[in-house]
Structure formats: structure tokens, C-alpha cells
Write a structure and sequence with these properties.
- The structure holds two protein chains of two kinds.
- Chain A is of the alpha/beta class.
- In chain A, about 45% of the residues lie in helices and about 25% in strands.
- Chain A has seven domains: about 230 residues, D-Maltodextrin-Binding Protein, domain 2; about 240 residues, D-Maltodextrin-Binding Protein, domain 2 (3-Layer(aba) Sandwich); about 110 residues, 2-Layer Sandwich (Beta-Lactamase), CATH 3.30.450; about 80 residues, Helix Hairpins (Orthogonal Bundle), CATH 1.10.287.130; about 160 residues, Heat Shock Protein 90, CATH 3.30.565.10; about 140 residues, Rossmann fold (3-Layer(aba) Sandwich); about 120 residues, Rossmann fold.
- In chain A, the strands form eight sheets. In chain A, strands 1, 2, 3, 4, 5, 6, 7, 8 and 9 form a nine-stranded mixed β-sheet that branches. In chain A, strands 10, 14, 15, 16, 17, 20 and 21 form a seven-stranded mixed β-sheet that branches.
- In chain A, a hairpin with a 3-residue loop joins strand 24 and strand 25.
- The longest helix of chain A is centred in the middle third of the chain and has 71 residues.
- The radius of gyration of chain B is 14 Å and the shape is elongated.
- The termini of chain B are close together.
Chain lengths: ~1200, ~110
């Protein structure tokens, strides 16, 4: 029978106790005989498990919960143990094979039940907890933070419980199963695991472990090999006897080994506040309430209160609090003083929560949870509790009696002794005594005629704290938990002498009374049975006749009511409710029967199972975590209440479901109890509630996160702004006070300038971000020559790279398209931002590489680029990588990292990339480095560079020498595009050898491309040696990442033909290679130029130089050019000229007097339609899409950008003049 | 002496500038000489110093066109950047660093003429 389902009425329990005493007397007899036989040796599997079972080695000192339990069991069985050591899993296998007899700590698993013997009672109950490293701030009690973490667990019933818990909370985590606790804890301690699942609180004094949350609980058993039913039977008997004799044994054992380590958790805010604001604790106590509290002959406080308070403060680690005690004769006075705040806490208080509330006090956790003894004289009967004597100075007693015996009469006496006297004299029927006091008080000889019996209701003795004083209450609760629930009980013996004086005579008297009442009870029972039997026979005859007549009538009534009943049952079933009965009968296993709907809900075929099996089918499928709640509601039913409970139940087919179950006791007798109730499947409702709750929680978490991020940002920003501001203010003041020292002032001004620049960049970032967030940022669309962009970037960062002694690699791969349409400034900003970060976060000696790759594009007029920037810097945490692109985030505050910034750089970068239609991603590992990848699709420029082969070089060989293989491969593929046959090497010396070899074979290289810096032989020297071999035969081109002005002279002398900057782009390489052949080509191109002879253009432009350039270009193209210096002149000229005189107008926009927009508008408004309709082309240094739109809106026909792009200008003019 | 070679080493994209002048070297060099004397440089300096954003924008904008045509990259870059900083602004933005670059580059370019 599962625990919690046994309940005996008061009398039943007493009877049982008496029978048990007999049983033990009987059992003791064969024991004495057995002791002379050879002892039975029992083989126990003994595995190492912290606290539970320690010393798993031959000769090692054994301790632990399980070990102590074995010893206890052997007291009852006489077993002698042989310990077999090993891993849990090995030992479990041995248990299955029958090589060991016992193994402790196994949870109940249905599939195991046939393989090993489970005793009927568990050896303990276990809560499972998740434990993390206390430094892991990213893991909180919120289960969602376990996602992606590694959780270690022992191969045991915990694995299922853990998986169920993770599923329930929708957590995906890596679960690693270990075969031994030693390995599990070692892995945790070594940092391989983020979280461990452990029994109890799992921290076990580990300094750096912190309990997160319990995730399940289960009974565990001392299991017996299936081959040893004899041992199992002995174990069952021993456990039953242990339960009867030492009912609290398991509880105190678990308290001993697994005290609640609430200390692993931090003080709450209220507790901290109390400690901060208090240096004294004033305790009020009852003067006459030993062993709890009292005042000794010297007038000092004594009793449990004087032990537990210092112990609590010590356990809490709270020093510097002085404790004072004030004694009270009256409970009411004590409570009143607490309201008046002359004391902080009162002890003891109790008597029921209702009266606590009435008094305006909180009750702490129980210091002692003792029973209450009813003290009476003579025979116990219903009348006994009709009239109570109550100590007027002990309100707890008054409250208790009022709560539990509301109909009784109460007479007040000034002390408990007066109460007891009143019972003795018969003025009242009874009084009560607290369980810790009763035995000792009643040992006084003058009370020998008083009897007592234990009332069911426990009456806790607690500290009382004024309502509102939450901090102190929490501290006391925490302290009480830490000193342990049995602390008070254990030290109470010290004070019992104050309650009685005990003599030998007293003892004899007491025992006389016990035996006397026992004999009397047995005698009465015999008489009762005899009388009852006799009465029965006489009555039976008469009753039979009357019954015959009544029977028929009853049958008819029965039929009608059965019909009604069936109908009701249908209605209830249709509503989805099953109905059930549970029968609990002494000496029999529990049984259950249900109606058809109930069986359907349980997934049991009707009539296929016995009632006992039905009960088991139901009970065994309650989820272990919920068993306790079911037991609680059963106890409530047994107490006569109607209760309802929702618990999880595993349906054989549907899996885990939520069940709403309620009921009450129908028959409530000592030996037989009948419960009945209803049962329905509410899974959908519960799940929906859970989903709603989760959605709300998620939304809340998101809002909180955003809010937190803004707050953090503001805090950081204020700090970051203040730092340079402080410098500016400080150095300004210094400069002012040293105004005559020119040198010093210059130095200060320099420092002020640096700080101002920094402050400015912070503010710029913030403004940039707000522009992006308000959608005000626009992108310029302009032709960008990618090689220029990359070379520029390289130039910009080179200084910082050298200053920090970093290595920088830049290379390109498959870049076929070099002219794109993009916002050069913004693209620069993006790449520069990432590169600057890489430089910022890479310590000296590190490496930064920047790869540009072109990938295949979706359409022919776009190109996809991948910019990959990788560093060997400090990297960033996985958590930070997820938020790096959010505004207002930084890995650590700048004070910690020593690196300043707004936390906006990457958010800006990401926003720009998004606006450009690209994608940015990051990969990073702390301490190893970071890689940012920007994927960017770009429209191609209007006049892409021509990449056709150079016919003169077709099929000729070329040699590439560079110590970087990627560069070699990339340059070779470009050379192939030009039409050459390339070859490559990583070494300068090798290049020289190859040159010689090629010469010897008569297939010489017709071009050499040599890196300037190679480790074995530098480029210039290589060139010098190659020239020695080949003479002036072929061009030699030097690749360099640096400005070559400094080395040009030396290089030319060594025989270098040309330079090409790194990273190498096809267009540049081609230009260099084609240089000797391109002159004629350019001439060819020139002949193709457009001819606009006979056309007249009105060039409206205020800048003289632009006028000259435009005039030159236009004249060259055959135009007749007339110039207007501003918009007004242009309008006048148009008015004055005959229609058709000008063919087209080129209109600058930004001009004095009248701008281009206004001029265009005026011209469009001219009365002559031929004049008004003249094509007008806007020419402006603005190349924004929006400017183009404004120009078109002002009635212009086209838009050209400055500086002049001749082919584009010609195209536009040609189109408009057609 | 202002030559294509010295302009190239100064950082001008002479190929582009020349192309815009029909590859007429003399014409290009003459225009460069004019460009370096452009009054807008003084206008820009004064406007920045006096905090007049509107004038500063106009001067920078005009210079951007001129320098772009001449392909005087070392001057064009800071001027373009300034133009964007001034665009649509009410208050004078911080451009001292850029202004410094412009003066420096202008001095360097004018030194070529000597």
C-alpha cells in the first residue's frame, strides 16, 4: 500500500500500537534462538555516492544514508552483510544475475518489477534537483535558459524524470548519461557540464555549485534479487516493524544527511534590508513554557529559545546582531508589545493560523511541530471534551481549543498547574498539554491519576513576527530550515528537569497504570462480544418474517431508483466525467471500481481486471511528481472534506494527460474506508492555460529584455560620455591654470582634442543610429570601382595595423565584376567598422584577414560578394553573438574590457547592410577569434570593364611567385581569363630555378608576377636573379600591398617592369599586362566617338572650371556650346532665342541667384511650346535617388552626375536628341 | 612643376582626369591650376569658421564637382565627406579634422606648382 493511504482513527492507532508491542515481544523470542545459528550473510551492492553511500572500497570507513539504513535493517533481521563494490550499473547487472542480494537506491519502474524484488515500503524519498556552476550567470531558474546546455545525469530513474522535465518545458539540451557519480561530479567540476541533475540539493557543500530548481521526486527502494524471496519477506517484515516502532526514522535519517541547503541560495532583498537596518534582535518569550522558554532563578531567559536564536544567527552567518530577551507571563502582553514594537519577535506562538491573523502576526516555520495531548481523568468518552480548563496566560492553548473543539465550554485558570488541578478535582473534564511538555509534566507524582491521549492535530510552536516585518520573518524561516526541524526536539531534554521531579516510585506507578488499563480493555472486549452474539439469535426469528413482507416493496423501489441512477450516470458520463470508488480496508490491498466512462478514461477494457488491478492500473500511472498531491487530496477526503485536484496521469495509449479528480469519503470507519468521486480528462484545458501563460511570460521577458538593454545602454553611455568629458573639463582647467606655460598648454590642448574626437564619434554613432531607427538614412547610388574601395580600406587601416603590430592579409577570389552600383561611403563604413573592431579586439601579434569573394549571382546584372573578415582576437561569448547586432549591447562594460565604444557600431553596420539588401553574420569563439561575413548583392555598373583575352598573350606561359597559396591561385585564374598559361610557386628561389628551367626547355615564361615580400628571398632580389637568367625578355610585375613609391627606384634598377597593388583585381592585372599593346586600341576606340555636329547646347553652370571642362567635352563631340552663368541667365537666353535655337540644356542645380530646379520650372512655363518642351538634363554632384526624383519632378528629362562621365553623358545626350 | 607625373604621385587619378579633357595634357594641367585657386576653398574655410552651414554646404558642393572633374582624389575625398555632413543640417557639424585634411592636401597640391 502506498504511503499516505493508511490512516487509522485514534483508537485504531492505539490498538495497532499495542498489537505491535506484542508482535515485537513475539519476534524477539526466535531471534534469541537464531543468534546461535550461523548468521545469514547478505551480499549488498555498494557503490560510491556522495552522502548517500560513501566508502565503497575494501577497508574504507563507510558512512551515508544507505549505510545507516542497512545497519538499522540488520537490527530487525539479524543480517550480516558482505559488501560488493562497483559501479552502479555493474552492480545493477549483478543484482539482475543474482550475484548480489541487495542494492539500494532504486526507483520504482514498472518494467523492473518482474526482474527484481521491491519491498512494500521505500527506503527513502528523493527530490531531484538541477545544479549549476554558481558563476554561470546565464543560467537561471527559468528553464528556457537551459537550452543548448549540457546536462549530466546518472544512469538511473533520474534520466526519465529529467527528460520528462525538459520535454515539459520545451527545452532542448544535450543530456549526457554517466555510469557513476564519481565520473559525473568529476565532469561537472572540470567544467565539461553546464548543469548536473543530482539527488537532494546536489550541491553537497560544493562552493561553486548552486541549486537551480527541483525537477522531480521519487521513492527509492532497497531492492532484493528476484532469486531471494526469503530475503524480501524478511525485509518487508523488518520495514513494517521499523515503521511501527520508529515512525520518524526515515525522516530523521534524511534530515541528518540531506538538510535543506537553503544557504546555497542568496538572501532576498527584504532579508538584506533587515540585516542592513538592524543591529539588535529583541526577543519576547513566555516565562512559564519550558522546554520552549522560561525564566530561571537568576531571572535569565532559558529554554530552547536561548539555544535556537544564537544557532540561527550563526547558521545565517549574521554577526554583529545583539540579542536581548524579555520574559512575559502573559501571551497577550507579549503580542501587544510586538505590536508596540518593543520586541521584534515573540516565542513561542501557535494555536492556529486564524488567530495569528487576528493578532496581526506572522508565524514562522515551525520550530517544533509537536502533537497536542488531551489530558483527562478517568475514562475517555465523548463527554471528555465538553469542558476544558485553559491557562489564561497561554493564548495558544485557548486558540487551539477554540479551533478544534468549537462547541466545548472553557474555564480559564491562571496557570497550567491550576488547569491540571481543575481536571484532577473534576471541575472540568480535560485540558491540553503541548507534546514536548506533556510527558514530563505528567511524570509529576501529583498528576498520576491523569491520563492523556494524542490529538490528531499538531500544534506548531513558532516564532511570531509583526505582519509587515517580512525581512525578519524570512530570515527566521531560513534559519529554522538550516538548523533543522528536529533541532528543538533534540535539545528539549536539557530542560525537562524543570518540569518534573522523577522517582523510582513514579515509574512503578506509571507502569502499573499501563498494565491495568490494558487488562481492562481486553476484558471489556470479551464481554462485549459475548453479549452481542446472544442478542442476535433472539432477534433473528422475528426479523425474518417482517423482512419477507418488506422485501417486495423494497425491490420495486430499488428498481425505480436504479433506473434513476443509470440515467444520472449517463448524464455525468456524457459530460466526460467518470465516477469511481476506492475501498481501503485494513489488511487488504486498496481496490478501485469505476463506471464504464471511468474505465474508458483509464484506458482499461471493461471487466478484464480485478478491482485490485484497476486500483494499481490507476495508481501506478500517476506521474511520480504528482503522487504527493494525490495522496494529499486522499487524506483530505479521509478527513471528511470534499476536495478536488488536478494531476498528471499516464494514459496507456494517449501518454501523459491532465486529470481533474475530486471526491469525498463515503464510509469512514477505522478498518474500512470508502472514497468516491469523479475523474475527467482536462488535458486540453490545462495545456491551453499553459500555452497562454507561456506566451504571456515570453512577451513579458522580451519587454523586460528590451527595457534592460536600454537602461544598460544609458548607464554605459553616461559613463562613456562622462569619461572624455571629464578629461576635457579637467585639462581645460589645467590649461587655464598654466596659461603662461606654452608647452604644457599645447600638451593639454592635444589631450583635449583627443577626448573631444572620441566624444564626437560617440555622439555621431548615436545620431547615426537614431537616423537609421527613424528611417531617415538614405543610400546613394553611384558607380563604385571595387578595387579602389578595397585598396582605400587597406590604406586607411594600415597605420593602425602597423601600430598594433598585427598581420593583415587581404585577398580576392573569383572577383569578375569590379564596377558596381553602391553607396561607397556606407559600404566603406560597414567594412571599416568590422575591420576597426577586428583591430580593436585583436591583441598585438595577432592576424587579421580580409577575403573578398564573388559568388554566382541570380541574374546577369547583379553580382554577389562575400566579404569575410577574420581575426585572431579575444572573440566573444555565444550569448553575445546573438545580440551583437542589437542596438545598445556590448560584451562587457567598457570599464571591464578597457575598450570604449557605444555598443552601436555593429547595430549601425547591420542596419546598413540590411538596407543594401545584404546579410551579415558572425561566428566567434572566446579567446580564439571572430569572423564576420557580409553577403552583399550589388547591381552592376553601366560600363563594366572589359575582360576579354589579350590576343598578344594568348597561350603564353606566366609564372606567379607568392608565399600565399591563395594569392597564387587567384592570380593564376585571372591570368587564365586573359588567355595565358600560368604556373605558380611559393618561393622566390624556386621562381629563379623555374625561369632557368623554362629557358633551357625553350618554353620560357613570357611574364613574371612576383610578390614583394617572400620569406626565403625578397621580391626585388628574386627579380634581380631572374633578370640575370632571362635578360630583358619578359615583363616582371611586382605585387605589393604597400605604397611602392619608396622602393620604385631600386626596383626599376633590379629590372621590375611594373607594379600591381594587392589584393590583385583582374582589371588592374590586365591593364598592367596589356600596357605594351593598348595604345593602338585606345586610338581605335576614339574613332567610334559620337558626332553631334550642328547641335547647340545651352550649358548652364556657374563654376568657370566646370564650364571649361564641359565645353571641351561637348565641343569635342561636335556641339556648339553657349554658356549661361546661372539659372536666371539661362531663362533669359531661352526667352531671347528663337524656338529651336538650342537643342538641349545642361542644367547645373546649385547656382547663385536662381537654382536649376527653379530655372527648369520657369522654362517649362514659357508660352512657346517649342521652347517650353526643350530637353533639360540636370547635372549635379548629388547622386541620390531622391535628387534624381526631384529633378524629374521639376520637369527635367534626365540626370547626370558630376564629375562628368563622358560615355554616360554622350549616351544621355544621344538618347534625348534622337 | 605641375606635371602628369607629379599629379599622379600626389594621388590624382590622372587617367580619369585626362580622359575628361580629351587626353589633352596641357588643358588638363591648366584646369588643375585653376581648380587649386578656386575661391570656394576660401569660402569653405570662412563658412566653417563662422559656423554658416548653408554657405559651407554650397562651397563644399561646388568644390566636390570641380575636384571630381579634375579627379584630384586626395582633395575630393574629404570635401565629399564634408558635403554630406553639411547636407540638410541646421547646426554646424564637427568637421575640423576634415577641414584640416583639406588644407593640408591643398597646400601639398599647390606646392606641386612651384
Amino acid at each position: 500500500m502506498p504511503p499516505g493511504f493508511s490512516r487509522a482513527s485514534v483508537t485504531g492507532r492505539r490498538l495497532l500500537a499495542v498489537l505491535c508491542v506484542f508482535a515485537i515481544f513475539l519476534a524477539a523470542a526466535p531471534h534469541i534462538a537464531l543468534a546461535e545459528l550461523p548468521e545469514s550473510i547478505v551480499k549488498v551492492g555498494y557503490y560510491e555516492n556522495e552522502v548517500f553511500q560513501e566508502g565503497a572500497e575494501e577497508g574504507a570507513i563507510k558512512t551515508g544514508y544507505a549505510y545507516e539504513y542497512y545497519r538499522k535493517i540488520s537490527e530487525y533481521t539479524g543480517w550480516k552483510y558482505e559488501y560488493v563494490y562497483g559501479d552502479y550499473s555493474d552492480l545493477y547487472q549483478m543484482l539482475l544475475d543474482g550475484r548480489i542480494d541487495l542494492l539500494a537506491g532504486l526507483a520504482w519502474k514498472e518494467e523492473r518489477a518482474g526482474l527484481i524484488g521491491y519491498p512494500s515500503l521505500p527506503m527513502g524519498n528523493e527530490t531531484y534537483s538541477l545544479v549549476k556552476h554558481s558563476t554561470a550567470g546565464n543560467i537561471t531558474t527559468n528553464p528556457s535558459t537551459f537550452s543548448g546546455k549540457t546536462i549530466g545525469v546518472l544512469e538511473s530513474a533520474m534520466v526519465d524524470a529529467l527528460n520528462a522535465y525538459l520535454d515539459r518545458n520545451h527545452v532542448t539540451a544535450a543530456v549526457k548519461v554517466y555510469t557513476s557519480y564519481t565520473a559525473l561530479f568529476a565532469a561537472f567540476d572540470a567544467g565539461l557540464l553546464d548543469i548536473i541533475a543530482a539527488e537532494g540539493d546536489g550541491a553537497y557543500g560544493r562552493d561553486n555549485a548552486e541549486v537551480l530548481t527541483p525537477f522531480g521526486a521519487s521513492d527509492y527502494f532497497l531492492c532484493v534479487s528476484i532469486d531471494r524471496p526469503d530475503l524480501l519477506a524478511e525485509l518487508n517484515d523488518a520495514q513494517a516493524a521499523l515503521t511501527a516502532e520508529e515512525p520518524n526514522y526515515l525522516h530523521s535519517l534524511s534530515t541528518k544527511y540531506y538538510p535543506v541547503s537553503i544557504s546555497a541560495r542568496a538572501f532576498s532583498a527584504a532579508e538584506k534590508e533587515w540585516i542592513r537596518t538592524h543591529d539588535a534582535l529583541r526577543i519576547g518569550y513566555l516565562e512559564n513554557y519550558m522546554p520552549y522558554s522560561g525564566t530561571d532563578e537568576q531571572g535569565q531567559a532559558t529554554g530552547i529559545v536561548t539555544d535556537i536564536i544564537p544557532e540561527i544567527l550563526r547558521s545565517l552567518g549574521v554577526a554583529n546582531i545583539s540579542v536581548s530577551y524579555t520574559g512575559y507571563e502573559s501571551y497577550d502582553r507579549m503580542i501587544a508589545d510586538m505590536s508596540a514594537m518593543t520586541i521584534d519577535a515573540a516565542f513561542p506562538v501557535g494555536g492556529g493560523l486564524y488567530f495569528s491573523e487576528e493578532n496581526g502576526i506572522y508565524q514562522s516555520a515551525p520550530v517544533a511541530s509537536a502533537s497536542t495531548e488531551l489530558v483527562y481523568k478517568g475514562e475517555y468518552s465523548d463527554a471528555t471534551t465538553q469542558h476544558f480548563a485553559v491557562n489564561e496566560n497561554n493564548r495558544m492553548q485557548y486558540y487551539f481549543v477554540r479551533t478544534n473543539f468549537p462547541d466545548s465550554q472553557i474555564t480559564l485558570y491562571p496557570s497550567i498547574d491550576a488547569c491540571l488541578e481543575a481536571v484532577l478535582s473534576g471541575r472540568v473534564n480535560c485540558t491540553t498539554l503541548n507534546g514536548l511538555r506533556a510527558n514530563d509534566i505528567l511524570k509529576n507524582a501529583r498528576y498520576k491519576d491523569l491520563a492523556m491521549y494524542q490529538l490528531l492535530r499538531k500544534d506548531d510552536r513558532c516564532f511570531g513576527v509583526e505582519i509587515g516585518n517580512e525581512g525578519l520573518l524570512k530570515l527566521l524561516n531560513r534559519g529554522i530550515n538550516m538548523v533543522g526541524g528536529d533541532y528543538a526536539q533534540n535539545i528539549s531534554y536539557r530542560y525537562t528537569h524543570a518540569l518534573y521531579s522523577y522517582s523510582l516510585l513514579d515509574m512503578v506507578r506509571e507502569h502499573m497504570a499501563l498494565f491495568g488499563s490494558l487488562l481492562l480493555a481486553v476484558g471489556l472486549m470479551v464481554i462485549f462480544f459475548l453479549v452481542r452474539d446472544q442478542k442476535r439469535t433472539k432477534k433473528q426469528m422475528a426479523e425474518k418474517e417482517a423482512a419477507g413482507a418488506a422485501l417486495e416493496k423494497k425491490n420495486r423501489e430499488l428498481e425505480a431508483s436504479q433506473k434513476e441512477l443509470a440515467e444520472t450516470d449517463d448524464i455525468i458520463s456524457d459530460a466526460g466525467f467518470g465516477t469511481w470508488h476506492i475501498i481501503l480496508e485494513e489488511g487488504k490491498p486498496p481496490r478501485m471500481r469505476g463506471n464504464a466512462k471511468m474505465m474508458e478514461l483509464l484506458g482499461i477494457p471493461v471487466q478484464s481486471l480485478t478491482e485490485e488491478e484497476v486500483y494499481n492500473a490507476w495508481y501506478s500511472r500517476i506521474l511520480p511528481e504528482d503522487v504527493a498531491s494525490v495522496q494529499k487530496s486522499v487524506s483530505e477526503m479521509l478527513e471528511g472534506r470534499l476536495t478536488e485536484n488536478i494531476y498528471r496521469w499516464e494514459h496507456p495509449e494517449k501518454g501523459v494527460m491532465y486529470v481533474r479528480c475530486g471526491g469525498t469519503a463515503q464510509v469512514n470507519e477505522s478498518h474500512r474506508q470508502l472514497l468516491r468521486g469523479y475523474h475527467s480528462d482536462v488535458t486540453d484545458i490545462v495545456r491551453e492555460e499553459q500555452t497562454q501563460k507561456e506566451t504571456l511570460q515570453n512577451a513579458l521577458a522580451a519587454a523586460e529584455h528590451a527595457n534592460r538593454a536600454k537602461t544598460t545602454f544609458l548607464n554605459n553611455m553616461s559613463h562613456d560620455i562622462r569619461t572624455p568629458m571629464n578629461a576635457i573639463v579637467g585639462f581645460t582647467a589645467l590649461a587655464a591654470s598654466h596659461i603662461d606655460n606654452r608647452e604644457q598648454v599645447t600638451d593639454y590642448l592635444g589631450k583635449i582634442s583627443v577626448s573631444s574626437q572620441h566624444l564626437l564619434s560617440l555622439i555621431n554613432d548615436v545620431l547615426d543610429m537614431s537616423r537609421i531607427e527613424s528611417g531617415k538614412m538614405t543610400l546613394e547610388e553611384k558607380e563604385v570601382h571595387l578595387p579602389d574601395l578595397i585598396h582605400d580600406l587597406r590604406t586607411i587601416i594600415q597605420t593602425n595595423i602597423s601600430a598594433k603590430q598585427l598581420e593583415l592579409f587581404v585577398d580576392t577570389q573569383n572577383v569578375v565584376h569590379e564596377d558596381i552600383i553602391a553607396d561607397k561611403l556606407r559600404l566603406n563604413q560597414v567594412l571599416l567598422n568590422i575591420l576597426s573592431n577586428a583591430i580593436k579586439f585583436t591583441p598585438s601579434g595577432g592576424k587579421i584577414s580580409f577575403h573578398v569573394t564573388e559568388e554566382e549571382a541570380q541574374s546577369p546584372d547583379t553580382a554577389n560578394y562575400v566579404f569575410r573578415i577574420r581575426d585572431t582576437g579575444i572573440g566573444m561569448s555565444r550569448e553575445f553573438q546573438q545580440t551583437i547586432f542589437e542596438a545598445f549591447t556590448r560584451e562587457k562594460s567598457s570599464t571591464v574590457s578597457g575598450i570604449q565604444g557605444t555598443g552601436l557600431g555593429m547595430a549601425i553596420t547591420k542596419n546598413i547592410v540590411d538596407m543594401m539588401g545584404g546579410r551579415i553574420t558572425v561566428r566567434s569563439e572566446e579567446g580564439k577569434g571572430t569572423e564576420f561575413v557580409v553577403n552583399l548583392p550589388c547591381r552592376l555598373g553601366s560600363c563594366p570593364a572589359a575582360f576579354e583575352a589579350i590576343p598578344e598573350l594568348e597561350g603564353l606561359r606566366a609564372l606567379v611567385a607568392d608565399d600565399d597559396t591563395d594569392t597564387c591561385l587567384s592570380v593564376c585564374s585571372m591570368l587564365r581569363k586573359i588567355g595565358m598559361r600560368p604556373d605558380w610557386t611559393n618561393y622566390g628561389k624556386e621562381a629563379v630555378v623555374r625561369a632557368k628551367e623554362a629557358m633551357d626547355h625553350g618554353d620560357e615564361f613570357r611574364a613574371y608576377i612576383i610578390d614583394w615580400q617572400m620569406p626565403d628571398l625578397n621580391g626585388i632580389e628574386t627579380v634581380r636573379r631572374i633578370r640575370k637568367v632571362i635578360g630583358d625578355l619578359a615583363p616582371i610585375i611586382i605585387l605589393t600591398a604597400y605604397d611602392w613609391a619608396d622602393i620604385e627606384k631600386e626596383a626599376r634598377e633590379a629590372g621590375v617592369t611594373a607594379f600591381c597593388s594587392k589584393p590583385v583585381f583582374l582589371s588592374e592585372l590586365r591593364n598592367v599586362m596589356a600596357e605594351p599593346f593598348c595604345k593602338e586600341k585606345e586610338e581605335e576606340k576614339k574613332t567610334e566617338k559620337k558626332d553631334f555636329s550642328g547641335r547647340r547646347v545651352l550649358l548652364t553652370e556657374d563654376n568657370e572650371m566646370n564650364q571649361m571642362i564641359a565645353e571641351a567635352i561637348l565641343t569635342e563631340a561636335g556641339f556648339t556650346v553657349e554658356i549661361a552663368g546661372d539659372g536666371e541667365v539661362a531663362v533669359e537666353k531661352m526667352k531671347a532665342a528663337p524656338p529651336g535655337y538650342y537643342d538641349i540644356i545642361l542644367m547645373d542645380i546649385q547656382m547663385p541667384r536662381m537654382d536649376g530646379y527653379e530655372a527648369a520650372k520657369r522654362i517649362r512655363e514659357l508660352p512657346d511650346p517649342a521652347k517650353a518642351g526643350i530637353p533639360i538634363v540636370a547635372v549635379t554632384a548629388n547622386a541620390f535617388e531622391e535628387d534624381r526624383n526631384i529633378a524629374l519632378a521639376a520637369g527635367m528629362n534626365g540626370h547626370l552626375a558630376k564629375p562628368y562621365d563622358i560615355p554616360k553623358m554622350m549616351d544621355t545626350l544621344e538618347k534625348l536628341l534622337k | 612643376m605641375l606635371t602628369i607625373e607629379t599629379l599622379k604621385s600626389y594621388g590624382a587619378n590622372t587617367a580619369e582626369g585626362l580622359a575628361r579633357c580629351m587626353n589633352n595634357e596641357a588643358f588638363y594641367l591648366r584646369l588643375v591650376g585653376m581648380g587649386l585657386k578656386d575661391v570656394n576653398f576660401d569660402k569653405l574655410q570662412n563658412a566653417v569658421a563662422s559656423g554658416n552651414v548653408k554657405d559651407a554646404f554650397e562651397a563644399a558642393h561646388a568644390l566636390k564637382g570641380v575636384l571630381g572633374n579634375l579627379a584630384l582624389t586626395p582633395l575630393l575625398d574629404p570635401v565629399s565627406e564634408m558635403t554630406e555632413k553639411f547636407r540638410g543640417k541646421e547646426e554646424m557639424p564637427e568637421v575640423s579634422e576634415l577641414m584640416h585634411q583639406v588644407s593640408e592636401q591643398l597646400e601639398k597640391a599647390r606646392a606641386l606648382e612651384a
